[in-house]
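Listing 4. Sequential folding, example run.
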Amino acid sequence: MPKKLLVTGGAGYVGSVMAAHLVAAGHQVTVLDDLSTGSADGVPEGARLVAGRVQDAVTILDRSYDAVLHFAASSQVGEWVADPEKYWRNNVAGTLELLAVMRASGVRTLVFSSTAATYGEPAAIPITESATTAPTHPYGASKLAVDHMIGGECAAHGLAAVSLRYFNVAGAYGRHGERRDPESHLIPLVLHVAEGRRAAISVYGDDYPTPDGTCVRNYIHVADLAGAHLPALDKAPRGQHLICNLGNGSGFSVREVIETACWVTGHPIPATTEPRRAGDPAVLVASADRARDLLGWQPTRTDLAEIIRDAWTFTQSLGEDAR
């Protein structure tokens, strides 16, 4: 049955892919985005764009809305160490206001874009939702704080909520892909080198306890990620907070990503080794069993070359001015 939905951060990378999936499924979609990192042209046809911050949801939400999908957040690597207060203000205080607006307007379903960074350095791999949460940087801490807030809102006020903890999102979906400025994610940065826009890719640490010494991450295709949110809208139990990991069940090292990108693009990708970054765990690989069992979700685009190929196709489709 079609729903009326608010998508915060729906002009960004993941949010725009999600908005496109929702429109294609026949839902009525309003995107709320301040366009600080998103792009207006990323909002799909058929969705209404309202330019504004999360707090501006007060001007939009009313009882005619069925649910909110909350993607808006600050998430730049490195910035969270230099400017942690921004993460508490935008991610935590902003969501607190959003929850209050949802309560006042009678909108009682939320799907939240959470993160694997809530787990920090895991004690066991693959990571399950019962793993200890011990984030190692303000971004992960801010998302964990929001998860706690949502749990309280569910228990006290009957919110139905699902937090989806993303592992490394990559790839592209049609005209929707990664184009942050500044860019901080590995795959688009590697592709920048292949394009000749960067001289080399920096590898932060080659002495981790992994097979080749570089960090191992669980990459998930952005279209698979979006596919998990659709059932989450219907599976959220009233008064309960469901938390599910989203990952493809296997990990790839930084060097594997670089080598695969060389093969996909046909271009050399020089790499330089730099010191480790503070807060980078050696391995982050998810168990997505709960998402499979409770949401009926199964990733279908798990091949690293396919993920990189989709990202490369998107990158090549951009004009110089859009890059």
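-- end of first protein; second protein begins --
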Amino acid sequence: MMHTPDKNKSALPGPGPEALAHSERLQVLIKDEIQGQGGSIPFSRFMELALYAPGLGYYSGGLHKFGREGDFTTAPETSALFSRSLAVQCTQVLESLDHADILEAGAGSGVMAADILAELERFGQLPGRYFILELSGELRQRQQQTIEQKVPHLLERVQWLDALPLSGFRGVVLGNELLDAMPVQRFLIQAGEVCELHVVLADEGFTYQPRPAPDELTRAVRQLESQLGEPFIEGYESEINLAAQGWLQSISEVLDEGLILFVDYGFPRHEFYHPQRSGGTLMCHYRHRAHPDPLVLVGLQDITAHVDFTAMAETAQACGLDVLGFTTQAHLLLSLGIEQRIADAEDPMPLAQQIKQLVLPSEMGELFKAIAFGRNLDLALSGFSFQDQRARL
């Protein structure tokens, strides 16, 4: 999902008439809300509508998003070896818990669920149920088709949810490229004050306007400054993902026993808010091109922000969870034996190429990280055996 940003937005391919009409309908909805809210909405609300407005947002509007035909390729789409490796980590936890389940949040095309289930069956370690938390009806349908095609006999174990279980969950919670798509608040330091970036109407489209930040955002930014040991410079702009922190808190409330494993791109706090990263981390993906403007191609492109993994670890600890590991995607997959899987293959060359994409620093290996949280789980997690970088948090 990460690519080198396109500096020239005019180089982006133009959408067809049907896509343009779809985008226009979503823009009308957003413009109506802006006018109804007195002329502006916080960027976080704009991002929420652009991605999740029912029937129109990028993730809920029926567009083809994943893989070669879509806008980006995720690790499970790149190679089944990614999901098969995660299944090794799931197996360790499921063995220790006995009669446990798996919950995958935001399951994309369903390919990760199918590949994990196939591998767990091979290990003789299937979960009681494989829950998929998915709000998009269109994606649910696609996930069901994928699982039906790849592991039809295991479909009955899969259950779709539109909210977290009420309580008492035991097992493994998985989120791959989940946190980066949660709506973020954008802040700007102006004349020493914390401003929140709002979206307002401009000509035919949208533009930004700084507004005084609400107390919660001001407190969060000032807290960041004290943790980093210096104030943000004038004009510094970045994001805070309070939604992701709230979501982790919600999971912690329903988890009785087990593991939460997130794989996503991002940094520890001191790197995320580095003085030189003064424009933030927001990135958009459209037909395998990346650029930094979320206010164009509304509803037709993905909008993401990197993850502040330190914030997630602090939230976990505040919720009474243990931080069990933090490492790069490369070290996670190598710890789980990804390279050993070539040995059994009839034609190892394509697999070797896929492994390179998943683990090389110049590909997904370094930018993508894995972080693990647990409750009542007394295990040295196998996925963090090569290199545990919790000290970097």
